[in-house]
């Protein structure tokens, strides 16, 4: 059975600015046979997506929450610990501009 499921964000602290892109990755330490990955938010039963990678192309306020990755080998499944994703407010149009 799959075990050691880990989940991480490509941005520090799993924080993303509203409208920016966020990528989450999932990996499994042990498991044999074909493995399937599914993504869940807030304990929802229906998967958001499948595959070892979840990409939110334009993060919105409703994308904040706890994400989990579930890995299954067809017979049994294991889940990652929840990762809290925070979508921050509007990007400051002055950011990066010279004073």
Automatic annotation (TrEMBL):
UniProt xrefs under InterPro entries: Ig-like_dom, Ig-like_dom_sf, Ig-like_fold, Ig_sub, Ig_sub2
Biased composition (Basic and acidic residues): 89-99
A Pfam family this chain is assigned to: Ig_3
Region (Disordered): 63-99
Domain Ig-like intervals: 2-86
Record-linked SUPFAM superfamilies: Immunoglobulin (SSF48726)
Coiled coil residues, start to end: none
Protein name listed in UniProt: FCRL2 protein
Organism annotation: Sitta europaea
GN (gene name): Fcrl2
